[in-house]
Amino acid sequence: MSTKTSFVDVLVVGAGPTGSMLAYSLLKSNVSCRIIDKKEAPVSRGHADALQPRILEVLRSHGLIVKALKEGNKINTTSIWHPGPDGKIERVSRIPNITAPRGLYPFNLTNHQGAHEAIFTSELPKYGATVERPFAPVSIAIDEDQIDADVYPVTVEIQSASDPAKRETVHAKYVVGADGAHSFIRKSLGICNIGDHTDRCWGVIDFVPDTNFPDIRTTSQVHSSTGFCLIVPREDDMVRLYIPLDETAHYRDSETKKVNVGAVNPDELLEIAKRAFEPYYMNAKDGYHWWTIYVVGQRVAQNFSVSNRVFLAGDACHTHSPKAGQGMNAGMNDAHNLAWKLIYVIRKWADRKLLDTYEEERRQFALDLIHFDKKYVAMFESMALSGTGIDPVVHSKAVQMFGLFKSGIGIHYAGSMITCSHNQSAARYLIVGKRFPPEIILIARDDKVVQIHDVLPSDTKFKMLIFTGDIHGSGRKELIRSLAERLVEGRLLSERSYISCDRIEMMRMVDTLTIIKGYKGQTMYTDVPESLWTHWTKVFIDDVDITGEQGGKAYENFGIGPEGAVVIVRPDGYVGLVTTLHGVQEIFEYFRAWEIPMGTKTV
Ligand SMILES: Cc1cc2nc3c(=O)[nH]c(=O)nc-3n(C[C@H](O)[C@H](O)[C@H](O)COP(=O)(O)OP(=O)(O)OC[C@H]3O[C@@H](n4cnc5c(N)ncnc54)[C@H](O)[C@@H]3O)c2cc1C
């Protein structure tokens, strides 16, 4: 048996939603990357289904949203059912499914997990890659003496699951374990998972229903005196039911408490669910598309990285209840957070210490998620114990209260070298550490309406948003000109080089967008120094559009006064720095904290 040897910048282990998104993001940015998965074929049904509003925004920033929306099912509404005075279930409220303010997508999008993965994996061939199946690592080792050298310090032996004679030694600069809850990478590196399992066991069935239950196409929480059921509407007229199961049932080992998925019978699950819907009927039209049973594990890995050379992402480093629809979304957000940092370090634009912020930001998020999940699961668990008399008003309020966090829009990264909030008052509502909110602005040259998210794409660049205030105000033009000159002198707006596949590529690390406060008729894009825009489409006005129906609210909604502001948005769309138009020194310091200056010789 001969073992092949190869070299790659990043090896991604696991092609679930997390690994697929990460590999896509890296390959799209010219990083040499391979992705392997131990399974013969991708997921074709079931598993995770709901994408949250924040991830939909991220998909839009990658230009992938049209595809996702076309195939998925939008869920706009949540219905809550409780027993009425006569004991029969009745609807007590019908509320928006998403209550987070100012999201571009006020709904969940459901589809089977394989469809979500394919949003990314179907793009890989464009970059000359594909998921390599069925390959799994058999060993991983990090050469601790070479951690800071520009070499390949991680060695992974991989083997084909279908043909053990196919082995390869992969030398990688970085390895990402996106290999799910039972992560081989996590276990091999001796990283502990901290947390526990809840006791209750839940059943899940996906099927096309034959029913007279009226809220079958909304997320419905049905709490009756004879049972509980959660409905999640899906693609192709399908629904998913979540059903709490009896502790003493035969599919759970009484001693180990482990569930035996093989022992589950979907007809049995539906029979249990039917009790909650009485007097409505609920049958499966054409059998079942998918089913499972699970217990909720709420665990977070002790570390998300070893020596900033091997990283864990997704279920490999955090697990929680599926009911809030968070795991896949959290994994994708891990990928989104890690991708640009790896890209910057591999391009030699950033010091490796930038990678510290991955664990700082995403592990804290995972802990917050477990905290949220405990409260959320507790709500469901208490409803599962039928007859406990949950107050319908309290129930509806609880569902709405969780909205901001659940949507992903509430993610708030703490202060660090890439989130600096010393001058927050310059743009009061552009909260440093939170994602940049959507807003309508106009392109100054042709008054075209633009969603600001569409000029903040996931293209690996930082965006510097210069809010000039009233450019005709006294001393304004001089102030903007002086800012532009200092930025140019400091080479912040220059193109930088990086090597990809032995070729030198050039691109800017920081793109500038200028937003003028003023009226269309009185403002010219030429008022902005040319060095601040790479293209005329990058100068905007905060004014209403020609119909008078949209636009003109950016300064107000962002909390920016007539004196203007400068806002740095990170490549992942989060606000990194807010400062005044005089804050050029602060801008340089922000980048200096982690950037490798241009022209520095690196090892
Ligand atoms: C019933 C149910 C419903 C859910 N619903 C939702 C939802 O609506 N929204 C949501 O956000 N989350 C949901 N989740 C959670 C979600 O499924 C997970 O959080 C998500 O799949 C994690 O993605 P991942 O890529 O990190 O891991 P996984 O999806 O587990 O993918 C890991 C991949 O790695 C591969 N792999 C594993 N080990 C190896 C190895 N040694 N070598 C190579 N490859 C390996 C696997 O084959 C797999 O393809 C649900 C979970 C369940 C059980």
UniProtKB/TrEMBL annotation:
Domain Phenol hydroxylase-like C-terminal dimerisation: 411-593
SUPFAM superfamilies: FAD-linked reductases, C-terminal domain, FAD/NAD(P)-binding domain, Thioredoxin-like
UniProt keyword list: FAD, Flavoprotein, Oxidoreductase
Keyword Oxidoreductase annotated: yes
Protein's UniProt keywords contain Acetylation: no
The organism's place on the tree of life at top rank: Eukaryota
One Pfam short name: FAD_binding_3
MF term (GO), any: FAD binding
Cofactors required: FAD
Xref: CDD domains: PHOX_C
InterPro entries: FAD-bd, FAD/NAD-bd_sf, Phe_hydrox_C_dim_dom, PHOX_C_sf, RIFMO-like, Thioredoxin-like_sf
Domain FAD-binding: 8-371
PANTHER family found in the cross-reference section: BINDING MONOOXYGENASE, PUTATIVE (JCVI)-RELATED, TRK SYSTEM POTASSIUM UPTAKE PROTEIN
Family statement: Belongs to the PheA/TfdB FAD monooxygenase family.
Name this protein carries in UniProt: Phenol 2-monooxygenase
